[in-house]
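Slide 14.
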Amino acid sequence: MTLTLPTPASPLKIGTRGSPLALAQAYETRQRLRNAFGLSDEAFEIVVIKTTGDNRAMIDADRPLKEIGNKGLFTKEIEEAMLRGDIDIAVHSTKDMPVEQPAGLVLDTFLPREDVRDAFISPQFTSIHDLPEGAVVGTSSLRRRAQLLNRRPDLNVVEFRGNVQTRLKKLADGVADCTFLAMAGIRRLGMEDVPATAISTDDMLPAIAQGAIGIERRETDSRAAELLEAIHHAETGRRLTAERALLAGLDGSCETPIAGLCEIENGQMRLRGEVLRPDGSKAIAENTMGAIEDATEMGREMADTLLRQAGPGFFDWKKS
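Slide 15: predicted structure.
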């Protein structure tokens, strides 16, 4: 069967949220598809969809994300649009995606992964270690909050939500002494002027799937599947298989401080995982090596190990 390519008269509709970073990721997806098939930009249509999470985040800008809802808040309307046929594919930051998709949808295409590290952002300090006692740190990430308080319980961590530009403005306004962003987001937005220092993954293990763009489609859409196969990055997919199996085994959500990273070294997979109490009072870490074909099993086994070590009640929410 011959692949029917999108045309200006019948474009491939790419669904996305409307933030500058989300749009940058949608444009990257469009460019890779364009290059793979020799198409023009007009063969694609970027469809911006405002989600419940976007609306509620604007209204409840100072409330922790945990109190507003889970990760599905930022995907529900996009996925409903795809199931209706209003869009053909959806572009996401994979770290924001639940481990299970709604019936009829699959997330099986990943672009080459960007820098996985977190970035320390401050106009006056260069690292976490340079922060004075009692310094104010702004972050909306439970993982970053827990990791930071585990290493520096003397710091004052405050809620700091919004897109990249919003958080940088808050920092410039003196709301906090520093904040954190993902290096991948800074690079995709071309924000070389941001005073960012990359944090070693040995010092701050990143969120599961950080730096990876995932593309969702309808399970029965063979044309989309064939188009996306041309831009899928197999190594990123293998790494995320292990990381998302770890997340699934931990029943992870945006309410749980979990970190994880899979890397491929000399034909072997190295998987690292970390779970923390929400207040940072305790952290449990694991590190394992295994065969690439055992990615799913590695993730599940590490999740079981971490859960056994953590014991009941470990993830109970407790504001610091």
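Speaker note: Confidence is low (pLDDT under 50) at residues 56-61.
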